[in-house]
Amino acid sequence: MANYNSTILDTLIPKIKAVIFDMDGVLVDSESQHFRAHKMAIEENGGTLTKEFYSTHGISRDPLLFYADCFPDKKNNKEFLSCVSRRKLQIYRQLQEKEGILSVKPAISLVKFLYGKHIPLADGTAVYKNEAMKNLTTLGVSNFFRVIVTLDDVGGKRKPAPDIYLKVSQLLKVPPNRCLVIEDSENGVKAAAAAGMPVVVVPNAFTKTHNFTGVIIVSSFEQIKKTFSI
User: Fold this and answer.
1) What would you measure as the largest C-alpha separation in the chain, in angstroms?
2) What was the pLDDT predicted at 60?
3) Which helix (H) or strand (E) holds 217?
4) Mean per-residue pLDDT for 120-137?
5) How far is CA 22 from CA 43, 60, 79, in A?
6) Residues known to be catalytic
7) How far apart are CA 102 and CA 112, in angstroms?
8) Which residues contact 123 (CB under 8 A, 6 or more apart)?
9) Which of 74, 116, 123, 218 has the most CB atoms within 10 Å of its CB?
10) In the chain, pLDDT over 90 holds for what percent of residues?
């Protein structure tokens, strides 16, 4: 795992022409809600789920592949896995209605700061368009992003495939190596790396044990803001 190195980050920033934010776990404090929804749906169907297993197997993955890992004896039963997935989505929406869409406030502050410096911003997220727009609109930042790329724009190809980030680069008309990605998960880092983009990781409680190799890790969004302030 790489550590925060201010010299590396300071050297990188002058080359950056655009910043791309992930959504879940970066802008939206959603991992706890996702975990609880997964756990309830899985337990209703006779399975079990721990935070550790979700962290290593569930974050930023295709739900059906994740549920196949949770129910190995039913991994080929797509109807069953799809049923669990639909139930999880139902529970997740109920949690959002009850608790609201929660922001990662330091990340939102960074978005507004970079926007004020006229740096082109984008959001590249492995959710579908309606959910992405609902989240960003609720958080009051949808208009800060020049480009918003979701699963609808890449034929449902999830991270770690690079398609989401490559599409962002194409729409922004900024070369991949000039786009800085801000991520929180291992699959997100792999997607950005496969797209040829530098990455800064801000781990959260669910991703702090992920294997982040060859990237810059910071403990807070404030560290990124300070570097752009120089």
Assistant:
1) 55
2) 84
3) strand 216-217
4) 97
5) 29, 11, 30
6) 22
7) 17
8) 20, 21, 22, 23, 27, 132, 136, 145, 147, 148, 149
9) 123
10) 89
